[in-house]
Amino acid sequence: MQNNKSATEYLDSIGQQLDFIDQYYIQQADQNDAQVIQKFKKVYKYIDEAYKSNFMNDDGLFSVYGFFLQTVKKFKRKLENRIYFDKTDYAATLEKFERTQTKLVPVYKDLILEAQKQERIDLETLLDSNMVHHIYTKKELGQFALQLFDFLNLDQIKVPKEILGDLINEIVMNYNVVPYHNFTHAFQLSQLLFSCYMKSDLKKFCTQLEIFSAILAGLGHDLNHKGVNNMYKIKKSKKFNILTSEIAVLENMHCATFFNIIQLNRKHDFFQYMSNDEEKTLAKRLIITSILATDMSKHAKLLAKLQKRVECTKQYDQGEKNDLIEMQRFSNERLEDRIFILNIMVHACDISNPTMKFNNYMNWSYLLTQEFNDQTIKEAKIGVDVTGFLIYKDKPTYYGGQMFFSKSLVLPLWVQIGELYPELKYLSEEINKNLEILQQKLKQ
């Protein structure tokens, strides 16, 4: 195996992971976790001694390293989530940043979290597209996610509530403590999708199994996200001569993580409660295509296709009928159309921050700005080209970036959704209000 890292550097990487766990998490770990940590130390000591005594060569070390380090990282992720289960992702990230001495970008300190936590979440709150999510803990958000399915009243879905609850908890445990792409973001996507479904004729368009699968896809769409984008993964792979696909790197990993969760423990396998193989195949297809639709490199093609089909649907509804319009219009009788619409909705909800009230929108974008800036530090550290536009520079540059993203990418998508489902036009209207505020701030 060729690699730009030396065997010694690999050993150091393992040691650093274990040192971090030992230094920061051992005191908060329960007895079982503490025993696992001790076993990891023994394995590391064996690998270290075997290599230094020439019992293991470089290839053997790389092979063992890859398996063992991934095991340690997975354990660390779950340990972090267990420790922070009763904390918000925002608070957990701040604690982690303090421990790792991560530099905060100035806007990170501008978050406004003045909303009052509700002791009991009702339907009205879950229908609110401006719900403030960052004040709730991982545990609470997991419980709210289960409530989404309760309020959907999916009487045709026979998955027991305890199975669904266990699956959601395991999904929570497989997110990382990062500023933005954490379970709070995943819940926000699914909650907005739920809101759009309940408020519009989308509920007349797709089946119970399809919306069930799409909301599950939303909850799992960023599993094991480490706070870096696809380009970082590709650049890192090239740097270290690692063969990997350059297409939807993260999205494919999120899909794989989702299905690994199901395969590793039968109590998470909700497919076993479906009536037949056809239902199982459809659910799997919807989950996979919805997660893959969150790849921003597909945005332009998805939007162009949506615009054309919305236009044909409007023409058909106005009485214009020919073979081309009939073929291009949306019809709930066509499975492909239902899948495409739900893929679009998952993608739109994934980039929906600008549809919120301004302060809430800014909270989300501040967190994403921190994550972007953190990525550039990682890029510099491993010696690849730094993505310059991700570096936080100043407020005017930040506001300008938000205007470009909202106006060029998010607004056109939600305008088309509003054309298809008029009950959702208020979301694109909110984007326009935010664009006006951003414009005013640029003039100040």
Automatic annotation (TrEMBL):
Binding annotation for Zn(2+) 2: 222
Enzyme class: hydrolase
Hydrolase found in the keyword field: yes
Domain PDEase: start-end pairs: 100-444
Active site: 181
EC number, UniProt record: 3.1.4.-
InterPro entries: HD/PDEase_dom, PDEase, PDEase_catalytic_dom, PDEase_catalytic_dom_sf, PDEase_CS
GO biological process: signal transduction
Binding site for AMP: 181-185, 222, 350, 402
Alphabetic keyword roster: Hydrolase, Metal-binding
Cofactor-binding details, from the entry: Binds 2 divalent metal cations per subunit. Site 1 may preferentially bind zinc ions, while site 2 has a preference for magnesium and/or manganese ions.
Cofactor: a divalent metal cation
Record-level Gene Ontology MF annotations: 3',5'-cyclic-nucleotide phosphodiesterase activity; metal ion binding
Record carries keyword Cell membrane: no
The family this protein is said to belong to: Belongs to the cyclic nucleotide phosphodiesterase family.
Protein name stated in the entry: Phosphodiesterase
